[in-house]
Design goal:
6-stranded mixed beta sheet; 259 residues; 4-stranded antiparallel beta sheet; alpha/beta; ABC_transporter-like_CS; ABC_ATPase_HisP-typ; ABC-type amino acid transporter activity; ATP-binding cassette domain-containing protein
Length: 259
């Protein structure tokens, strides 16, 4: 629920419910603690970049949010829904979260339009007319409508990733998870995907993105969450974390990407 409180002068202030809230998330694999008490939230329309060196826990945390891994302890809230509750309806939760991975995962034997509509029809039981109307709107939005009847092998890597983003947006999700979406792309194609993410940000999409694109994170994110050895080392604006941090390890981490 949103927090509503009355001030002494009779004014009522409302704090919106976070789109995503992580409360003391812990995850181990065997004796290795990968996540050691992660807590942060994401407000509506906020873009949060999840950064950190290899082994920091980024990928595991993204998998926990996407229900691909179960947490050992703690809670993850999507709006007012505790998605770590085993009684939660996972199909309904997944309809509220769009996910794009570094691998496009498009079906090679299906057209772009069929790839974008498949889950909406098969999993969420939309009728075909509704799904195709929505898909064509999204493809138009990302400049790919002319490719609706093309097959994945007829597209560049950047175009395939844009189709994957359109597919993730089909159900108008409350949260969009972007997991290293440029890692598998030729460097020449990274820009077109990042420009699309910037466009989504301008349209008010709430995004949690794990990325190695530091300059993009600096320019596009409202907030940086920096993981280190399974804990949050920094949580603040890009300027606070990337430019002004006094922590030696943080400064060394970002200095590596500036050379």
């Amino acid at each position: 629920m949103a927090d509503i409180s009355g001030a002494g002068d009779g004014l009522v202030t409302t704090t919106p419910t976070p789109v995503l809230r992580l409360d003391n998330i812990r995850k181990s694999f065997g004796s290795t603690q990968v996540l050691r008490g992660i807590s942060f939230d994401i407000k509506p329309h906020e873009v949060v970049a999840l950064l950190g060196p290899s082994g920091s826990g980024k990928s595991t945390l993204m998998k926990c949010v996407n229900l691909l891994e179960q947490v050992d302890d703690g809670q993850i809230w999507l709006g007012d829904t505790d998605i770590t509750d085993p009684r939660a309806n996972q199909d309904k939760i997944r309809a509220r979260v769009g996910v794009v991975f570094q691998q496009f995962n498009l079906f090679p034997h299906m057209t772009v339009l069929r790839n974008v509509t498949l889950a909406a029809i098969k999993v969420h039981h939309w009728n075909r007319d509704r799904a195709e109307t929505r898909a064509l709107e999204l493809l138009d939005r990302i400049g790919m409508r002319a490719k609706a009847n093309s097959y994945p092998d007829q597209l560049s890597g950047g175009q395939q990733q844009r189709v994957a983003i359109a597919r993730a947006l089909m159900t108008d999700p409350e949260l969009l998870l972007l997991d290293e979406i440029t890692s598998a792309l030729d460097p020449m194609l990274v820009g077109e995907v990042l420009s699309m993410v910037a466009e989504l940000k301008s349209q008010g999409t709430t995004i949690l993105m794990a990325t190695h694109e530091m300059s993009f994170a600096h320019d596009a994110a409202d907030r940086i969450v920096l993981l280190r050895r399974g804990v949050i080392a920094e949580n603040g604006t890009p300027q606070q974390v990337m430019d002004e941090s006094e922590d030696p390890e943080t400064r060394e981490f970002f200095a590596h990407f500036r050379h």
